[in-house]
Structures are given as C-alpha cells and as structure tokens.
Amino acid sequence: KEVGINTYLFQIAGIFESRLGGFFYFCVNLKQHRKSMIDFQKLPSPCFVLDEQLLDRNLAVIDRVRRESGAEVIVALKACAMWSIFPELAQHSDGATASSLAEARLVFEEFGRPAHTYAPVYTDRNIEAILDCSDHVTFNSVAQFERFGQMALLRGISCGLRINPGYSPVETDLYNPCVPGSRLGIPAGELKELPAGVEGLHFHVLCESRPEHLRLALDAVEERFGRFLDRIKWLNMGGGHLMTHKDYDCDELIRTLQEFKAKHPNLRLILEPGSAFTWQTGYLVSTVEDIVENGGVRTAMLDVSFACHMPDCLEMPYKPAILGARDPEPGEKGWRMGGNSCLAGDYCGEWIFDRDLQVGDRIVFEDMIHYTMVKTTMFNGVAHPAIAIVRRDGAIEIIREFGYEDFKSRMS
Fold it and tell me: pTM, whole model, 2 decimals?
C-alpha cells in the first residue's frame, strides 16, 4: 500500500542515523519536523491525538519483520483499541489478539476477522460469545481447557495453552508474569502431557523488550517445553517485542525467528506486539489552568489527570516526555505537572522549560497512544480527553469527544 513519501523519508533518516554519523543532526531534524507541523492550539484540550505519518513509520518496520522473518505479527488490543485505525492496522498485520469478550467482539466487528483470544479465565457467561468471535483460543490452565475446550474444538477453533517458561526480563513485578506464584501460564512441572486437541502453545514474558530477551525466552521454552514442540502447529510468543523503538535491532529479531523456524519447521510462529504498532505515534494535549506554589515547589495544574488518563506514570512509575521540555540538571528546580483529580498523588515531574509557564500554555505529552486510552478512567467525573487523528496531509479530524452522558452511562 502506498503510505506516502514521509514514510520513506523516515526510513532513509533511520539508515543515515545508524550508519552515517555525520548526518545525525539532519536525521534528527527530519524526524522532529512533523512535530512542528502540528498546530496543537487547533486541537481541543484535553485530547489524545494520533499522527498518521508517525504510524506509517511503524507499519513499515512491522511489514519488514513479517516479510523477512516469515512470522505472523498480530495486533494486541490491550495496548491500543483505537478502532478508527483498525483498517490501517489490518493491512499491515496478520490479525489481532483479544483478552476479553469485549476485545474479541471489537476485533470481529471492526478488524473484520476472528480474534486470537487469550483470557486468564473464561466463564459460562462469556465463553459462547467469545467462541463466536474467535478462531484461536488459548487457555490459561489445563482445567480451563478441560472445561471449555470441547466447545471450541466442535466449532473448529484452534486451541492452545499458555505456558510459563520461568524466564522474564521484566524487572517491575507488576508487569512480570513469571514472578513466584504467578497466576499466568502453566509451569513446566505441571504440564506432564499435552491434552488431546491442543494445537498450540502461548507464552508472554516480555515487556518493551529487545530481541536478545526473546532469544533467552525461546531457550527457556525449548529447555522446559521442548518435548511438545514437534506435536503442535503454532507457537505464540506473546507481546513485548518493541521492534519500532529506535534502538531495537530488527536484524537480530529476524535472525532469531528464522533460526527457530529452521529448527521447528512445522510451527507457525506468531508475535502479538501491542506497543510496537503505536509506539511514539501521538500525544496527549493539555492546558495549564492554574499555577500553585508550595514549599518552593511550582506546580502547573492541568486539565488532565495522571491517575485517570496516564495511570502508568503512577503505577510503573515512569516520567513521560513533554514537547519542548527537558529533565532538570543537578541543582535546577523545574516544574511539577499536577493532575485535575482530587487524588493527592495525582502529579508527576519535574521538567525544565525555556521560560516560566503561564495559564493557557499548552502542555503536550509525547508517546501517549499505546497503554493510555485503553487504561483511562472517569474517576472523579473528570473530563475524558477527546480523540483526534492528524491525517497524512496535515488535516485534523476529531474522532470523538466525551461528555456528561459518557460518565453517567457508566454508573447506575
């Protein structure tokens, strides 16, 4: 599909940046040029905004991995369920993966094909509807497969089991599925035999990880579950493959997948990244509505909330980048950003700007499309950010705005 000249400029910039150090500043300026083309004052505040040209850059990388590795790459909705871009994602992926009935329905209805579905637990209340929307279903335990597997097999659905290979590079326990006592996946010692009807195995142990971590994960899978690999049809390697990060070695990822495929030619290899599709493709636009100073700390009070709209900033925690701002040097006193909920800890910071902030200034948080909109809440009834897309020609399209009825309809 034609994705525009800017896609190829981004690719060329990446080559220059990695191979011709003398052109480094040219490349950085080219990559940053799109940001200066967006007039953030024309967007509502608060607002999530996705840039199609930045999305194109990621899709080009993902297409290369699919083409050269021979692996299938499917979209994980848990990172981004922005279904207005599903037509684009569908053309540059091999399907989508769901973790619930709602996600499976969204894949089936808006992605236009059945979902690869994995949920930690299925129930009598939702299994029938999930099967209606899926062509692959992975079970978290043998007991769940014994309870619902035959229903899936009678519909011709390919069934799998989630395994726990006992390895994960993730250091934050909240995101590590292999911590002691984990409820996710079957440990090797508990899977003595492969139940009849199981056609695939699934593991998910990475999070914004590199290809060397995938290689270590595959080594752990072969060591602990290798006896099953010649008896199944597919191996789903889960998400966390951040192949669109500027420092990610896609050559190494492709080699790893090719080598594993050569050892196990009977297997369909499946990756289901979430963040990689929408990594650094957009922003959360906000406005300074007040300035508060207490004990020498200056806080810019915004019309967005870290607790409601950027929860990973508090849970992970991590500090997002702000357009036009930088981290303080030792001894510098910067600005704290304050959220608009009544949670005492609804703040993050600090940042240095080239001038003192004023009421009315726009604060634009970067990389706010993946794992943001899908995790927002309406706690306190705070206004939910609008959703917008900056099209390839620079036109701004407001996809949706939210109001009182959206909050009220969630209550009873």
Answer: 0.88
